[in-house]
Amino acid sequence: MAVGIDDNEDLRTLRVDEDGIAELVAAQRECTFAFTTAAGWPAGVVMSYLHHDDRFWLTAAKERAHVRAAMREPRVTLVVSNAGTGLPGRRMLAVRGRVTVHADAETKRWFYPAFAAHHAPNDPEAFQRLLDSPNRVVLEVRPVRIAVSHDSTRMPGDGRGGSLGPRPNKG
């Protein structure tokens, strides 16, 4: 039996390896930031990120629900997929991490230019001016572990049950 052609139950062999993680994180610019609301519900928002010094850096207005949640409970999960990147196959990883909320000028001083250059390379100065607002904070997520990952390019065929050639006879 071939994983991804005849079997889609045990996908442990299809985890993203270290090189694949680095490639995915570099190619993607957005993630789903998952957190727990004050009422105990899981929730998530799509956010742009900058990966720097093995950490994920994000920004938002400090009164947003996900920022308030991060200040209350620092355990979060970031989900990164290859959707929209041009990377082949279907790839994803869920990174468990601890978030620190920064409001200090020193963090903003290096973060805003780097984030703006990464996300608005044609006019980073305009984006930096937009980001530099009085109630904005910077979120630093330090990864603890990869909770889940998947890389369909590690399976034969197209990852949807098809194959690149004739299927063996199950006879």
TrEMBL record:
Top-rank taxon: Bacteria
Annotated stretches, region: Disordered: 149-171
Domain Pyridoxamine 5'-phosphate oxidase N-terminal: 21-147
Protein's UniProt name: Pyridoxamine 5'-phosphate oxidase N-terminal domain-containing protein
